[in-house]
Amino acid sequence: MLCCDERYLPYAALTIYTLMQSNPDRDFDICIASLDALEVPPAIAQAGVRMCQISVGSAFDELPTSKRFSVAAYVRLALAEAFCDDYDRILYLDSDIMVVGEELGAVFSLDLLTAPVGAATDNMKLKYPRRPTPDQAALGVNGPYFNSGVLLIDTKAFVQQEIREKCIQVAKQHDPEKLHFDQTLLNLALIGNWARLHPAWNWQWSIVRPMFEIFIDTQIIHFVGTAKPWSDRKAGLPIRYREKARRFFAKYYPDLETNTAPPATKIRKSNLYARLIRHIGRTSAFVDAFNDHSGDIMKVLPPDFR
Q1: Among candidates 36, 29, 45, which has minimal Cα distance to 8?
Q2: Which of 3, 193, 207, 263 has its CA 20 to 30 A from that of 186?
Q3: Which domain, by its residues, includes 187?
Q4: Max Cα distance, the chain (Å)
Q5: How are beta strands 50-53 and 31-34 bridged, if at all?
Q6: In whole angstroms, how far apart are CA 297 and each of 104, 110, 205, 294?
Q7: Is residue 287 a contact partner of residue 281, using CB atoms and an 8 Å limit?
Q8: Tens digits of per-residue pLDDT, 126-179?
């Protein structure tokens, strides 16, 4: 399930398009939830996407927003209540994601260890396990921390434990300038109460990831940085992702402004050497994190500093 407004609908469509390509024989529903009434994008018209307009009233009116993050960023907090009669489990996906693995349906059978949410450790914590993330540092806390761009939600547990209400309460207790929107709220509301999924379910792509990715049975690629496949002017992302996005938008959204490096962009030796050096510096942290789950993408662990 994805949550977006009109502005992010083309990117949500790209996510679903990649899901359709990698999982053509899916046995689960695909949904887009929005505060607005959205029409099914032509690019995914054959996927049987369920378009759902939901109302949250004034529940999120006091939560912080920005130019990049609108109230739509908090809709994921209302999914369990809105769909608990329809689904026992919901896999929430951000709109800057590509689904590349063929086993997406397997995620719904993961053992969440009685937790209401399963998520992957945030990239910052993978690199620096003992260092607080920027929002943790601003709030004077530290501890395990997950990325909220991919969430496996146990709908009944989420509702029964009143996670949405706890997130709103957390927001009222802290300076909004110190909160990284829904991600901070969820991490504070779910301290010690989330299940740690294999990084394959939320492979957060950054410049120091390509060499490590060969060890991962990657299912979901999440472009967490400022560079997205459709706006990567410096060609920092792998060409296979940039070209997939370029072809998709050229075909289905020709009027949408994109700004990514052309396929003919040359490789600069100095950039490649810099990447190699950064990879070497991150090797120890990656190996430690990898060995927690090893190659078993179905292995779920309690949260810790990785």
Answers
A1: 36
A2: 207
A3: 2-201+289-293
A4: 55
A5: parallel
A6: 11, 9, 17, 8
A7: no
A8: 889 999 999 999 999 999 999 999 999 999 999 999 999 999 999 888 887 888
User: How many helices and strands in the chain, by DSSP H and E?
Assistant: 10, 10
- The tens digit of pLDDT for each residue in 40-89 reads 999 999 999 999 999 998 888 878 777 677 788 899 999 999 999 999 99
Residue 239 within a domain:
no
Other Cβ atoms less than 10 A from the Cβ of 302: the count is 12
Q: How many CB atoms lie within 10 A of CB 299?
A: 14
Query: Is residue 229, in this structure, part of any structural domain at all?
Result: no
- The CATH number of the domain where 108 resides is what? 3.90.550.10
Report yes or no on 35 lying in a domain: yes
* pTM, 2 dp: 0.94
Packing angle of the helix pair 163-173, 181-189 (nearest 10 deg): 110
Q: Measure the CA–CA gap between 280 and 282, rounded to whole angstroms.
A: 5
| Integer angstrom CA distances of residue 277 from 63, 223, 224, 227 | 41, 22, 21, 21
Instruction: Specify if 267 maps to a domain.
Output: no
Tokens representing 206?
């950054």
